[in-house]
Write a structure and sequence with these properties.
Layout lengths: L8 H14 L6 E9 L5 E8 L8 E8 L12 E2 L7 E6 L5 E6 L8 E6 L7 E2 L6 E7 L5 E7 L37 E7 L5 E3 L6 E8 L3 E7 L12 E5 L5 E5 L4 E7 L5 E7 L10 E6 L6 E3 L5 E7 L5 E7 L2 E7 L6 E7 L2 E2 L7 E3 L3 E8 L2 E9 L2 E7 L3 H8 L3 E8 L5 E8 L6 E7 L14 H8 L3 E6 L8 H5 L8 H15 L3 E11 L1 H12 L3 E7 L5 H7 L3 H8 L9 H4 L13 E6 L8 H11 L5 E6 L11 H16 L5
Parallel strand pairs: 32-33, 32-34, 34-35, 35-36, 36-37
Antiparallel strand pairs: 1-2, 2-3, 3-4, 5-6, 6-7, 7-8, 9-10, 10-11, 11-12, 13-14, 14-15, 15-16, 17-18, 18-19, 19-20, 21-22, 22-23, 23-24, 25-27, 26-27, 27-28, 28-29, 30-31, 31-33
C-alpha cells in the first residue's frame, strides 16, 4: 500500500464512516469517565470528552450531573464547569463538598497541574503553586486541610494501557535533539507531595529515592502506597505496599507479594488498608483478590471470589469495604467486612462498567455511581442504590444509532477448549445469514478481558463490510478467578492459543464463519497472537498485528517491561528459558504462509517498533506477502486521528485483499 492513503476511495469511505459516527457529538460532552459523587449526594462529577473535529484526541472537561432520581437522565442537565485550552481531568471533591480540585495542562501542554474551583460560585478555576513534573493523581485528606499529590517526572514512562512513551510535555526543541535515557536521570521518578490548602504551600512527602506508583490516604496521618526503590516500569511488578507517615515522611513495609499490587486505600480511622493483589500484565490493570492488612502490617486477610476477580476496593465512611468485581463478563457490586472477610453482593449487571476494568464510586450509604455501557447502550453515568439502578446522564446521539445499526448480531458466545474447559467471548456479525469471513480479534494483556461494551466504530465498520468478529476471552483473561488467570503464566502462546482456535472452530461449526476466510488481528499480546497463531495453525488467510512482540530475546532487553516476558514465559533469557525461543514468532517465520500486516508506533516503549520490523524482514526474506507501517509520534497502539483512520483503512484493505467479504 502507498504511504499516503488519503487520496484513495477506501480512505474516504472510512473517513465518512467515522464522520457519521462522531460528528453528531461535536461540541458536546461525550464519553464520560471517572465519576465521583458529591459528599451530600446531590451531584456526580466526571471527566467528559469534547470532540470538535477528528484530529488528535478529544479535549477533556470537568462536568457535573445531578444525581437525584428527579433528573431527566439525558445530557440537558449536565454542566461543563471547566473550559479553556488544554485538558482538564481527575476531579475530586473537598470533604465539605464546596470545592472541586482537578488537574489541567492549560498552562503547559502535556504537563498536568492542580487547580481548584468553587462548585456554587462563578469564575475560573484557580491554580495551585506548581509542582515538579506532571500530576497523575491527587486526593483530599479527610479534614480538607491538605491535598495529596502524586507527580511523575517529565521523563517517566506512561503505562502501556495509556499508550506507553515518555510523559514529557511538548517543548520547542530542534529536530536533531536526541532522546536520552540515563541511569542518573532524576526526572523519571514518581513522588508524593502535600499541598496546604489554606496557604498553597507545597512540600515533598516521600523520599526522593522511593518511586511511588499509586497512593491513598490512611486516616489523616498516613498514606498507603505501592512503591519501589527503582523508577523503571519493570520495578512495578515487584513493588510492595508501604505506609508513609505524614509527620516525618518515613516509610515502612506493610506487605509483600509474589504477584502485583494495585489500587491501595486506607480506612478512615487509619487502622487498615486494602489493595488489589493479582498476577498482572499491565500497570493500572489489576484484577484479582483483595488484600486487607492492618496499618502496622499485621493481620493480613485475602478475600477472593470464586470464578471472579475483584477490580476495585475502597473504604466507606462506616469502615466497610466497597468493591466491584468481574465475573465472566458481568460486573458485580458489593461490600466486604474487613474484620471477617465476609462479603455481601448487592447488585450485578451484564453491562460493561468503568474503562479498562469495572470501577464504581461509593454513593450514599450503600449505593454506587459508575459509568456503564452495553451492546445497545453508549457510555452513560448511572447510579444504583437499594438494588435499583437509574441513568444520571446519557450522551447518546445519532452517530451511536448509525454505528449500532450496521451490526446485525451482538451476543455472548461460549465454546469448549480442547481440554473441555468452557470458554466465552463476544460475537459481532452482519444481519444476513452466514457463513461470513471471520476476524479473530485477540485482546491485549494477556491479563484483561472483553466485556459487553458498545461496539467501537472500527468494529461497526468492519461488520458493515461483511465481516464477523469474534472477541475471545481465553485462559489468562480476567473475570474467571485466579486459577484461570494463572493458567497463562509460563505458557503464553500455549493453551491460550488453543482456546482461541477452538473458538474459531465453534464459529465454523455453527455456520457463522467461512473456514476458507479466517483472519486474525489484535494489539500488544493480541499482536503477538496475530503473528503466532498463523504458525500454530495455517488456516489464517490474513493477519494484522498491532504493536506485536515477535522476538522475546530482543523484546526483553529493548522493552521497558522486561519483567513482563520473564513472568509470562517462565524464566530469564540469559538462563536459557526455552520459551524465549519456542514462543518467538520470528524463529518460525519459515512456517508462515499468511499475508501479514504489521504496525507499530515510534514512541512505544512496551513493544518497541523493532519487534514489527524483525518479523517484517523475516517474512520478506521468505517471499510471504508482508507490509509494515510505523506511525510517527504514536506509542503502544495508534490513538490519534487521522493516523487512526489510516490504520483502519490499511486493516480493511488487507483483509479485503486476502479474504474478501464480497466477490
Amino acid at each position: 500500500m502507498d504511504r499516503d492513503l488519503r487520496p484513495s476511495p477506501l480512505y474516504r469511505e472510512v473517513e465518512e464512516h467515522f464522520r457519521r459516527v462522531y460528528e453528531p457529538g461535536f461540541g458536546k460532552v461525550t464519553e464520560p469517565a471517572d465519576p465521583r459523587p458529591s459528599p451530600d449526594g446531590r451531584w456526580v462529577v466526571f471527566t467528559g470528552s469534547l470532540w470538535e473535529k477528528l484530529e488528535g484526541t478529544p479535549k477533556t472537561r470537568i462536568c457535573l450531573a445531578p444525581a437525584g432520581p428527579e433528573g431527566a437522565g439525558g445530557d440537558a442537565d449536565v454542566r461543563q464547569v471547566s473550559s479553556g485550552p488544554g485538558h482538564d481531568a481527575g476531579a475530586r471533591w473537598s470533604p465539605d463538598g464546596r470545592r472541586l480540585s482537578f488537574v489541567s495542562d492549560r498552562r503547559e501542554k502535556g504537563r498536568m497541574q492542580l487547580h481548584v474551583l468553587s462548585v456554587e460560585g462563578v469564575g475560573e478555576a484557580e491554580p495551585f503553586p506548581e509542582i515538579e513534573g506532571t500530576i497523575e493523581d491527587h486526593s483530599w485528606c479527610p479534614d480538607g486541610s491538605r491535598i495529596l499529590v502524586l507527580a511523575a517526572g517529565l521523563h517517566a514512562d506512561s503505562a502501556g494501557a495509556e499508550g506507553s512513551g515518555a510523559l514529557e510535555s511538548e517543548k520547542d526543541l530542534p529536530d536533531w535533539t536526541p532522546k536520552v535515557d540515563s541511569w542518573e536521570d532524576r526526572q523519571v521518578w514518581r513522588r508524593l507531595w502535600l499541598v496546604e490548602v489554606s496557604s498553597g504551600e507545597v512540600h515533598a512527602l516521600s523520599r526522593g529515592d522511593l518511586n511511588v506508583w499509586e497512593a491513598g490516604w490512611c486516616g489523616g496521618g498516613a498514606v498507603v502506597a505501592v512503591a519501589s526503590e527503582d523508577p523503571g516500569e519493570s520495578a512495578w511488578y515487584t513493588a510492595p505496599l508501604v505506609l508513609i507517615e505524614l509527620e516525618n515522611g518515613e516509610d515502612r513495609l506493610i506487605a509483600k507479594s509474589d504477584v502485583q499490587f494495585g489500587l491501595p486505600a486506607g480506612a478512615p480511622d487509619g487502622s487498615r488498608v486494602v489493595a488489589i493483589e493479582a498476577p498482572c500484565s499491565d500497570r493500572q490493570l489489576v484484577s484479582g483478590s483483595a488484600l486487607i492488612v492492618g496499618a502496622d502490617g499485621t493481620g493480613d486477610r485475602r478475600v477472593e471470589i470464586e470464578d471472579a476477580d475483584i477490580t476495585w476496593a475502597g473504604f466507606r465512611e462506616d469502615g466497610r469495604i466497597a468493591y466491584t468485581a468481574l465475573r465472566r463478563g458481568d460486573t458485580v457490586f458489593g461490600h466486604i467486612d474487613p474484620a471477617t472477610g465476609d462479603r455481601d453482593e448487592v447488585w450485578s449487571t451484564t453491562d460493561a462498567v468503568g474503562a479498562w476494568a469495572p470501577y464504581a464510586a461509593p454513593f450514599g450509604e450503600d449505593g454506587f455511581a459508575f459509568v456503564r455501557q452495553g451492546f445497545d447502550r453508549p457510555a452513560e453515568v448511572a447510579i444504583v442504590e437499594a438494588g435499583s439502578d437509574r441513568t444520571v446522564a446519557s450522551f447518546r446521539h445519532e452517530g451511536h444509532d448509525h454505528s449500532r445499526s450496521l451490526i446485525g448480531r451482538a451476543e455472548r458466545v461460549t465454546w469448549n477448549a480442547p481440554d473441555g474447559l468452557e470458554m466465552d467471548g463476544f460475537l459481532l456479525a452482519p444481519q444476513a445469514d452466514g457463513p461470513h469471513p471471520l476476524i479473530l480479534h485477540v485482546h491485549g494483556g494477556p491479563v484483561w478481558s472483553y466485556q459487553e461494551s458498545f461496539p467501537r466504530a472500527s468494529f461497526s465498520w468492519l461488520v458493515s463490510r461483511g465481516y464477523a468478529i469474534l472477541l475471545p476471552n481465553p485462559r489468562g483473561s480476567t473475570g474467571r478467578g485466579r486459577a484461570f488467570l494463572e493458567a497463562v503464566i509460563g505458557d503464553m502462546g500455549g493453551a491460550d492459543a488453543q482456546d482461541d482456535l477452538a473458538g474459531v472452530d465453534a464459529m465454523v461449526e455453527r455456520q457463522i464463519a467461512d473456514p476458507e476466510r479466517i483472519g486474525v488481528t489484535g494489539g500488544s499480546y493480541g499482536g503477538f497472537m496475530s503473528c503466532w497463531l498463523p504458525i500454530v495453525d495455517q488456516r489464517f488467510k490474513a493477519a494484522v498485528a498491532i504493536s506485536p512482540v515477535t522476538d522475546y530475546f530482543s523484546q526483553h532487553w529493548n522493552s521497558n517491561i522486561g519483567v513482563w516476558d520473564s513472568w509470562f514465559l517462565g524464566g530469564q533469557p540469559e538462563d536459557g528459558a526455552p520459551h524465549y525461543r519456542e514462543r518467538s514468532p520470528v524463529f518460525f517465520a519459515d512456517r508462515v504462509t499468511t499475508p501479514t500486516l504489521l504496525t507499530a508506533g515510534t514512541e512505544d516503549r512496551c513493544t518497541p517498533p523493532g519487534q514489527a520490523m524483525e518479523f517484517y524482514r523475516a517474512l520478506y526474506a521468505r517471499d510471504v506477502p508482508v507490509e509494515v507501517a510505523i506511525y510517527p509520534g504514536e506509542g503502544h497502539g495508534v490513538r490519534n486521528f487521522p493516523a487512526y483512520l489510516d490504520l483502519v483503512t490499511r486493516t480493511t484493505a488487507w483483509f479485503e485483499r486476502f479474504m474478501p467479504a464480497k466477490p
